[in-house]
């Protein structure tokens, strides 16, 4: 089983909307891209570069203090990796975030893509969330998949089909009709997480759906910016 197949299984175990999409699609799932979050995009990027992916685009999100790249490999889904500019955070946020260890060397297994071993205090998590929901998510889920993306021929048709199946969806579609890239997503599936002092639910991951036109191969920062917010509580 490929690395992406193993990551899909781990992700879909916590995101029922992804499994429902596959059912609606008659068991067919074409992956447009898989996305990861990080404090340093290099370790995750190197994993895929070693497997034959190549860097194909770079992006800047000044409002959310993020950089990102995407990697491509013929016949394979794109890989989108974003990183938080930690130095843009407040001193207190950086202090809380210091408990997140640096990424260890890749061990060649899908298990490397996991959350931190040491859970945070709930008070630290909630304090960090006030400044950046992105970094609060990282404190909980680390290198786990942030989302997979289904490639569809018509995003509007699929948005309605998923709503009819009871899947909670983002209201808007990012990208005008006929644009090179049109995207929307499910709401983030809640997941029970173990904190140092209690257990609670937190928004984990969503399934994105994307329609590409005219051979467009990259990403649009204004659209991606809206999708980052899908993991807000």
SSE topology:
Layout (H helix, E strand, L loop, with lengths): L2 H10 L3 H9 L6 E6 L4 H10 L3 E8 L4 E7 L5 E7 L6 H7 L24 H10 L1 H9 L5 E5 L3 H10 L16 E5 L3 E6 L4 E14 L8 H8 L5
Parallel strand pairs: 1-4, 5-8
Antiparallel strand pairs: 1-5, 2-3, 3-4, 6-8, 7-8
Helix pairs in contact: 4-5, 5-6
Commentary on this structure:
The protein has 233 residues and is α+β, with helices and mostly antiparallel strands. Helix content is 31%, strand content 25%. The chain has eight helices and eight strands; from the N terminus they run ααβαβββαααβαβββα. The chain has helices at residues 3-12, 16-24, 41-50, 91-97, 122-131, 133-141, 155-164, 221-228, and strands at residues 31-36, 54-61, 66-72, 78-84, 147-151, 181-185, 189-194, 199-212. Strands 1, 2, 3, 4, 5, 6, 7 and 8 form an eight-stranded mixed sheet that branches. A hairpin with a 5-residue loop joins strand 3 (66-72) and strand 4. Helix 4 packs across helix 5 and helix 5 (122-131) runs antiparallel to helix 6. The chain starts with a helix and ends in a 5-residue tail after the last helix.
Number of helices: 8
Residues in helix, %: 25-40%
Q: Output mean pLDDT.
A: 95
Structural class: alpha+beta
Major sheet summary line: 8 strands, mixed
Low-confidence region ranges: none
Strand fraction band? 15-25%
Would you list the SSEs in sequence order as H and E? HHEHEEEHHHEHEEEH
Radius of gyration using CA atoms only: 17 Å
Distance from first to last alpha carbon: 34 Å
What coarse outline follows from CA principal-axis ratios? globular
According to DSSP, the number of beta strands is 8
